[in-house]
Amino acid sequence: MTSFFSFSTLLILFACLALGAGYAWVLYGANKNLDQKLRNALAAVRTLAVATLAFLLFAPLVRRISHTPEKPVIVIANDNSISVKNIQPSGFDAKKYEQDLKQLADKLSEKYEVKTYSFGDSVKQGFSFTGSDQISNGTALVSQLNDELLNRNVGAIIIASDGIFNRGGNPIYELNKIKAPVYTIAMGDTIPKRDVLVANVNYNNIVYLDNEFTLDVQVQAFESKGETVKLSVLENGKQVTEQSLSIGSASFVKDAQIKLKATKVGVHRYTVNLSEVNNEITTKNNSQTIFVEVIDGRQKILLAAAGPHPDLATFKQAIALNKHYEVSTAIAEELETVDIAKYSLVILYQLPAANYSATSLINKLKQQKVATWFVLGAQTNLQGFNQAQTQLNFTRPNGSLQEVFPYYGHNFTVYNLNTDALKQLETYGPLQTPFANMMIKGSYTAVLNQRIGKVNTQSPLLFFAEGNGKKSGFLIGEGIWKWKLEEAKNENAYPLVAELISKTVQYLSVKDDKRKFKVYTNKSTFEENENVVLNATLYNDALEPVNSSEVKVELKNSEGKAYNYTFSKVVNAYQLDAGAFPQGNYTYIASTSLGDKKYTANGAFYVNAVIAEYQQTTANHQLLNTMSQQTQGKMYMPASLLSIADDLEKSGQVKTITYEDRRYEEMINLKWIFTVILALLSIEWFFRKRNGEA
Predict the structure, then answer these.
(1) Where do the H-state alpha helices sit in 81-224?
(2) How many whole angstroms separate alpha carbon 269 and alpha carbon 277?
(3) What b/e sequence results for 665-678 when a residue is b if at least 16 CB atoms lie within 10 Å of its CB, and e otherwise?
(4) 61, pLDDT greater than 80
(5) Cβ neighbours of residue 500 under 8 Å, at least 6 residues apart?
(6) For the residues 412-439, what does the mean pLDDT come to?
(7) Residue 162 near residue 79, CB atoms below 8 Å
(8) For residue 219, what are the contacts with CB-CB under 8 A and spacing of at least 6?
(9) Residue 117 pairs with which residues in a beta bridge?
(10) What is the DSSP letter of 152?
(11) Per-residue pLDDT tens over the stretch 103-146
């Protein structure tokens, strides 16, 4: 980019003038019809017009400078939460406060760009004084301001709040990103009021049947010293426990541990109540309702054998270590009366055996596709075993046994085992394995492989396979009780045998979810001010997700009131935003069809009451003052908020910023030049025509 007044520019200018002069001489030099003075004037006009046109073709870039002023942005945000509306100091005039805040916005609008907000559950533009928001999230306000006012000239932020921010954490850390002074208006009352409350309840929302669980209840009391209150728990409306608490100080906090037992499967509503004291400011925080789902998480495991064996005790002890499993043992004729449908996994220990075929049991396993773990040994009838399943086949057995040692297959990823403990395998004795040729049909995953003598073979010792729609496990050898005995001899040994058995049982007993229609919420518990979102997936026979059909759902609350919705289609799935619901437990049944097949799916979710705004009623003006001090702002009481406008102007912090825009452009883009050229040519044309020239 060159300067407009450079030497090369002057040469171009003179050349263009010479070109224009030459053109004018050719046109007017020999013309005798025009007056000399007029001819000279028209020649000069033509010279300027042609020179200007030529110069536009060769002229350098021209620098242009423009200035754009930006008025400061003043943000005024009002806390619209319940605590601000309901907890007011004596002498506070709510109507005057609303009028003053609006007047402040109008006054500041005369000089600045003013943006008004209300915040609580969410951040909204404009003022709202309903005091209906159930939480107060100051961080969400600051984050939104950061996004909306990025690179803007923010002069100041004015926040009217009681300083009780019960969601999102402390907003002071986010305020530093805006780099503007924060002026706070201190709402609420800093004088503690007489109140007792259930401050918090910690609990597990899912517990297992017949297990004990604990509710950790934090009780707080203010200005109630000497009072005695009763803490009670109601299960589905019926009282199950009660205890008395003596309040020993003006500011009282106590954690109460309440033990309950899950005796029935299903969703249970527990209400934690605290009795009232006279003249307390509110009773809405005297109780909290929670929902606990009791599930029967225990899976039933059947240990089947033709007769007693030390290995059976090893298996049973390892499985029983996990409280979510219930193991039963059945031997020989006892298996004839077993209800296979109750079990998630059946361990066939040396079945079919030489002295007991277990044909009836094995046929039931095939029909009902129950996961099976085969353990082979000296008593196994290999011919019957080959007929009982299709994954593993033994040929040319001679009735003898061979000793096989274990070693770990390092490519195994189905479940994790303790890496250091796997070194113990080197100290374990051999298992007794039938001597025969082994052939595995299809793919398999090996946990342990066979080592014969000192040779590591690729033949598996413990492995998994899938076929006919069910999982199967195979342990080719008996005598695992000896491994357990080896561990018992060493006090520092890791319980690797128990881990192997437990994790194998866990893998085989977990059922794959092959439902073609699934409906589920994105979480099991929602709050009253939170939208309930349901998702659904539908699969065709090839298990490909499709959404060509319509999916409808009916939601019901505990009183039986129904809400009907239709899912929206998203990509290859479905989604429903059902909105917010009142406190309670809800069930849903969704239905759809694909071709001539109809599908249904059901589930449940729970909505908790939001009482955060009643958990703390004493205003935190210290936090508001800190926010102002750290940003070079100031805190005001509501009665003096109109003085903020004058103080802003006096502070000198709020200034208009002027942006200078420097850019280079070609002269041909300057439109006024074309006006000059057109004017010159028009004048020349007019006088030529006036004097009879063509």
Answers:
(1) 82-86, 94-109, 138-148, 172-175
(2) 25
(3) eebeeeeebeeebe
(4) no
(5) 318, 417, 447, 462
(6) 90
(7) yes
(8) 196, 197, 198, 199, 229, 231, 245, 252, 253, 254, 255, 256, 274
(9) 77, 125
(10) S
(11) 999 999 999 999 999 999 899 999 999 998 888 999 999 999 98
pLDDT, tens digit, 9 for 90 and up, residues 147-176? 998 888 899 999 999 999 988 888 887 887
The one-character DSSP state at 255 is E
Residue 621, amino acid: H
Q: Where are the alpha helices (DSSP H) in 329-399?
A: 359-368, 382-388
pLDDT at position 104: 95
The residue written with tokens 């705004």 in the block is 613
Residue type, 86: N
Residue 467 CA to residue 458 CA, distance in Å, equals 22
What's the CA gap between 72 and 212, in Å, rounded? 61
Q: Please, is 410 exposed, middle or buried when counting C-beta atoms within 10 Å of its C-beta (0-12, 13-18, 19+)?
A: exposed
Structure tokens at 440: 């595995």
pLDDT > 70 fraction of the chain, expressed in percent and rounded: 97
Half-sphere exposure of 406 (CA within 13 A, CB side): 29
Position 179 pLDDT exceeds 90: no
Q: What is the token pair recorded at 523? A: 């979480």
pLDDT 10s digits, 387-406: 999 999 999 888 899 999 99
Residue range 376-386: average pLDDT?
Answer: 94
Q: Cis omega (within 30 of 0) on the bond before 72?
A: no
Q: Report which residue type is found at 100.
A: D
Rounded CA separation 104/110 (Å): 10
- What is the predicted pLDDT for the residue at 16? 85
* Residue spans of beta strands (DSSP E) within 131-235: 154-161, 182-186, 195-202, 206-208, 212-222, 228-235
Q: Is the per-residue pLDDT at 690 higher than 50?
A: yes
**Which pLDDT value is given to residue 3?**
45
The values of phi and psi at residue 13, to 5°, are -65, -45
This prediction's pTM: 0.59
